[in-house]
Amino acid sequence: MWPTYLNSLRESMSRRVALVLLGVAILVAVAFNWIVHVRNASGVTMIVIGAQAPSPSAIAVPDVLESELHAAGSLWLLLAVFAAAPLLTATFEKGWLELIFSKGTARWRILTGRFLAGLTLYALIFALATLPVAARLWWRTGVGTWQISLALVVQTFSFAALLSVAALTALSQKGVAIPIIASVAIWVLSPSLAKREETFYQLFSSRAVREIVDWAYRILPKCSELEDLCVFFLHSKIGSWWPVWSTGLFTISILGLTIWLLHRKSF
Amino acid sequence: MTATIEVQDLKKVYRGFRRKPVEALRGISLRVGQGTIFGLIGQNGAGKTTLVKILLGLSEPTAGSAQVLGFSPRNPATRLRLGYLPEQIRLPDYFKADDFLRYMGALNGVDSRSLGKRMPALLEKVGLKGNYKPVRAYSKGMLQRLGLAQALINDPEVLLLDEPTDGLDPLGRRDVRDLLIGLRAEGKTIFLNSHLLSEIELVCDQIAIMDKGNLARMATPAEFTRGTGEYVVRVAAASDRVSAAAASVLGEHVYWQQNSFRFAPRDLRQLNSLLDRLRSVPVDIESVEPIRLSLEEFFIEVVAEQAANVANVS
Fold it and tell me: Which of A11, A80, B299, B306 could form a disulfide with B211 if both were Cys (CB 3.0 to 4.6 A apart)?
C-alpha cells in the first residue's frame, strides 16, 4: 500500500490542478495573516480584522478560525475532488493497469494507497490554508486553536466520503468525468438534503417522494452538516454526532463495495 | 518436465449489457515446461491476450483452471514470482527510469537495497545504461526496453511477454532474442505472445497457434517447419543440355527460374540419379536445398484449414 501511496502523492504533485490548489491555499493563508492583526491594548490582547473594531482575543480567535474554515472548507472539498479523482481513474488506464495489477500487490492495497494519497492531498491543502493563521493566533494570543486540527480531521473525513464515490465510479473505466460528476452531485445535494423541509418538501407534496428524500438524506454523506460541526468545535460546543457516524458508515460501505467489485473485476 | 504453466479446459465468455456474449476462449488446455520459451501466435481476436490476462490474474476465467507455478495467478503471492511486459506500455510522464523501476519493484515486494543493486545492472542489460531522463522523452523502443527491465526487476521465475520486440530496430530485436535465450539458460520460463513469427521461430521451444478461441495446433518449431518434400537445385549455368538432362530423369517438364528449378523427388534414389545425370552433362551443382515450410506459411495453412472446417460444419 505504501509504495502506491507515496507514488500517488508524487503523481498528484505532477498534476497542474493540484499545484494550483496548493498555491491558492498558500495565498489564502497569506491573505488571512495579512488582514488579521494582533494588538495589545492596556494589557489586553485584541484582534483586529481589517477595518473592523478590535475585539478581545478570546472572542475573536474562534471567529477568525470560523471565517477561515468557511474560506477553506466546503468549496475546497469540491475543488480537491478535481485534483484527487484523476489519481483514482489513472489507476485504470489501459497500458498502466496491466502493469500494476499484474504485480504481487493485492488490488485493494493499490486502490487504498491511491485513496489515502487523495485524502492526504486534501488535508495538505486544508492545512496550508488554515494552520499558519491558527498557529500565529495561538502563539500571539495564547488562546487555544487546536480545534482547527479537529476541523481538518472532520473535513478530510467528509472528503473521504466524496472520494469513495469517485473510487466506486472510477471502476467503470470511462474516464475522469463520471467520478467527478458523481462526487460533485453528492456535494451539491448535501446542503439541500440537510434542509429538505425548506427545499425538497416545498417542491414535492407527495408523501412517497418525501420518504425517498428522507432516505437519501439518511444514506448520503452530510458534507454541509460536517462543516457546521467543525464550526461548533471552534466555539467549543459539541453538536450532534449523527453526521459523523452516518457519513462514516456511508464511506466504509462504498469503499467496501468498491474493493469487492475491484477484486472480482476482470480487465 | 515440470509444468510451470498449466491450463485446463479454460473458457472465457465476455458478457455485456445488451451485447451478444463473446466467447474469447473455448476450452484451451496447455502445459508449459520449466526453463522453456513458449510462443503463442494467432490472428487478432484469437484470444491470446485474454489467455495472457488470465495467466496474470487480471481476468477471471468463466470455466476451467489456470495455474502458474502450481498456484492460481489471482493470488498476489503467485504474481510476486512473475514478470510481465504488456503490449501497450503507457507510463505516467513524471517518471524517470529509476523511479519507475523502483515503484515496480516495490509493488513486487523487492526491498530497496536489492533494488539499488539490481537497477543499474538491469538498465545495462536492456541497453538503457545511465539513462535517467523522464520517460516522456523516451522513444517507443526505449519504452519497450524499460518495460522489459521492469518485467525482470523481481528476478521472476516466469516471464510473460506481449510483443517484446515491438518498436525495436533489428539490433534491438537481436538483443532481446539474446536476452531471452540467456534467461532460458538461467532456467526461467518464458511465455511469448508475438505477431513476429520469425522471432517466435528463432527462440521458442514450443509454439501454439490459436484461432477463434481454440488451440488450433501446438508443436515444436521443427515440427511446424517440416520439409515439404520438395528441393531446389541450383546449377552454375543452365543450358538446353542441362534442362534435357533434368527432364530425362524427372520425366516431366522442368520449370527453370534462371539457374535453379524446384521439384519433388519420388525418393532419395531419384534425387541422386538426377544429380548424377546433371554432373554427367557436365554442369557444376551449386546447391541442393530441401524446401521447408516457414512458420508463417504453416500459420496461414492452419488458419485456412480452421476456416474451411468451420465453413464445412456450418
Answer: B306
**A95 to chain B: which residues are within 8 Å by CB?**
86, 88-90
Q: State how far the alpha carbon of B214 is from the alpha carbons of B11, B28, B49, B53, B60, in Å.
A: 10, 6, 13, 16, 18
Dist CA B178 CA B173 (whole Å): 9
Select from A11, A90, A95 the Cβ nearest to the Cβ of B86.
A95
Give dist(CA A9, CA A84) in Å, integer: 10
The CATH number that domain B3-222 falls under is 3.40.50.300
- Per-residue pLDDT of B152-167, as tens digits, reads 999 999 999 988 888 7
Residue A85 burial by CB count (10 A; 0-12/13-18/19+): exposed, middle or buried?
A: buried
Give percent of chain A with pLDDT exceeding 70: 99
Distance from CA of B59 to the nearest CA of A (A): 4
Scanning the structure block, which residue is given the C-alpha cell 459523523? A244
Nearest CA in chain B to A262: B58
Which chain B residues touch A if contact means CB-CB below 8 Å? 53, 56-60, 76-82, 84, 86, 88-94, 99, 103-104, 106-109, 150, 154
**Amino acid identity for residue B93 in this structure:** D
Q: What mean pLDDT do residues A242-252 have?
A: 93
Class of domain B227-292 (CATH, top level): alpha beta
Which pLDDT does position B157 carry in this prediction? 94
Question: Which one of B58, B59, B85, B89 would you mutate to disrupt binding with A, by most A Cβ within 10 Å of its Cβ?
Answer: B58
What DSSP letter does each residue of A188-204 carry, written as one string? HHHHHHHTTTTTHHHH-
Q: CA-nearest residue of chain B to A91?
A: B92
Please tell me the total number of residues recorded for chain B in this structure.
314
What's the number of domains chain A is made of? 1
pLDDT in tens, B13-28: 998 877 888 899 999 9
Q: For chain B, what are the domain ranges?
A: 3-222, 227-292
DSSP line for B55-74: HTTSS--SEEEEEETTB-TT
The boundaries of the domain holding residue A107 are 2-264
Residues of chain B found within 8 Å of residue A104, distances taken between Cβ atoms: 76-82, 107-109, 154
Contact B108 A104 (CB under 8 A): yes
If residue B230 lies in a helix (H) or strand (E), which one and from where to where?
strand B227-235
**Which of B55, B103, B152, B161 should be substituted to probe chain A, the one whose Cβ sees the most A Cβ atoms within 10 Å?**
B103
